[in-house]
Amino acid sequence: MSAKSTEVIDGVEVVVDGDRGPVVLMLHGWPDTRCLWDAQVAALSGRFRCVRFTLPGFEPGSRRRATSLEEMLSLIDKIVDHVSPTRPIVLLIHDWGCFFGYQYAMLRPDRVDRVIGIDIGDAGTATHLASLTARAKAMMAGYQLWLAAAWRVGGAAGNAMTRAMARAIKAPAPADRIHAGMNYPYDILWAGSHGSYRAAHPLELACPLLFIYGRRKPFMFHSPEWATGLAAQPGCEVIAADAGHWVMKDQPTLVNEAILRWLTASN
User: Fold this and answer.
1) Domain 4-132+197-266 falls in which CATH fold?
2) Measuring CA to CA, how many Å separate 183 from each of 38, 73, 200?
3) Quick check: 193 pLDDT over 60?
4) Where are the domains of the chain?
5) Disulfide: which of 2, 4, 85, 237 matches 45 by Cβ 3.0-4.6 Å?
6) The pTM is what?
7) Which pLDDT tens digit goes with each residue over 232-265?
């Protein structure tokens, strides 16, 4: 069994599994917590130091709080500097964790050696939006605006709205751990609150990227052109899995084996 430790960094509980190898920092999205990565920690912690935390405001029972993009990137930077002060890290990211992780990798390319992005690519770009049907665009806007509204409503009603959407899209997180406080990224995206995301940069990484996505979805969070271009880049790889949005839950063995193969081949 690998070593395990917990520390509080900038008010956030950070869990470290493993005591050797490079750091793999895991960032989850909606409506999840750090528990999303349990299967990946079990597979990787013998060879890597697996570091994870629950995004601020996503913790069950936490106080309602929104974290701006600037604050989120500052938090990630503090955690990276603490757990790996002299060596670049690997990012393993999903959903909103992809958005924050990609932005951090572009902000601090000196601190990120490689990135593993799960199911979110060039989402929201003109190229991506052009690849979607009108129905897909309506579906995407619909669930996001619903969650932004649930954030505004808050309380028991907001929680009920959030859990209803989670059931509708078959999110694997336990219902009793899902709450409206997780929805602030959608409010920031659509309402421009808490500093907005207007300062976010288009996805263009300086390091290799392994992109794993699920084919079984009503629409994709990346454009075919972006995936084709990425696959042609040296050191990068694109894997299409028989899975939905939560690929690490639907196909944990495929994801774990792909990550281990890609990381060890690069060392």
Assistant:
1) Rossmann fold (3.40.50)
2) 23, 18, 19
3) yes
4) 4-132+197-266
5) 2
6) 0.97
7) 999 999 999 999 999 999 999 999 999 999 999 8
